[in-house]
Amino acid sequence: ISAYYYTRQRGLDKRPILQAFEEEASLSVQGDRQQQLELSYRSRGNYASQIEDFLSLFPMERLCVLFFEDIKRDPLAEIRKVFEFLGVDSSFEPELMHANKTGAPRSARLMGWIYRDSWAKRVLVKGIFEPILGTEGKIRLKWAISNLLVNKKSNKQKEEVPDTLKRDLYAYYKPEVERLESLLNVKLPHYKAPTG
């Protein structure tokens, strides 16, 4: 569901949440490749499949897998895991700040143009911005513009997820979550059934 909110925030999907998930299957058959990538919400949550893709190239010891809930709960502990995984000084304590607060786009059309691929955008980016700014500068410019376009103080609430969609998604992801538990040797009961 977070992929839907992220895509909607960037002005790439204006549909209500239930409609977006209901139309996803037909989009994967009828939509163009760009739409399939941007609007495929279920496949973005197939974490076991994504990890298996990595494991076809690298052994498990070369992967560091963290969970968002753990990062949110104790970011310092999780960053230490990353430091240990990389073999660097895990006693270092970086200054942690909450910089990724979701907001509503001030201009969904302009935000969509920034994130959607087009001929005009490729000419502008490859022909002007990238030669002048370099790749890193181009990325910084994109994020600076995106941050200007997002109203961080928006009172706009996230659309409520209907219970029918919640049940459908839990059923859809259950086999995937069970494979993920097996792959990572962890228990993820909150991924298999609603909490609270």
Description of the molecule:
- This protein has 196 residues and is mainly α.
- It is built from 12 helices and 2 strands.
- It is globular and about 45 Å long.
Structure in a nutshell:
With 196 residues, the protein is mainly alpha-helical.
Spell out the blueprint of helices and strands:
Layout: H1 2-9, H2 17-22, H3 24-30, H4 33-38, H5 41-44, H6 47-55, H7 68-73, H8 75-86, E1 104-105, H9 108-115, H10 119-149, E2 150-151, H11 163-184, H12 189-192
Antiparallel strand pairs: 1-2
Helix pairs in contact: 6-11, 9-10
Based on CA inertia axes, which overall geometry fits? globular
Order of helices and strands: HHHHHHHHEHHEHH
The major β-sheet equals:
2 strands, antiparallel
Structural class: mainly alpha
This entry's quaternary arrangement is single chain
- Please tally the helical runs, counting DSSP H or I stretches of 4 or more residues: 12
Range of strand content:
under 5%
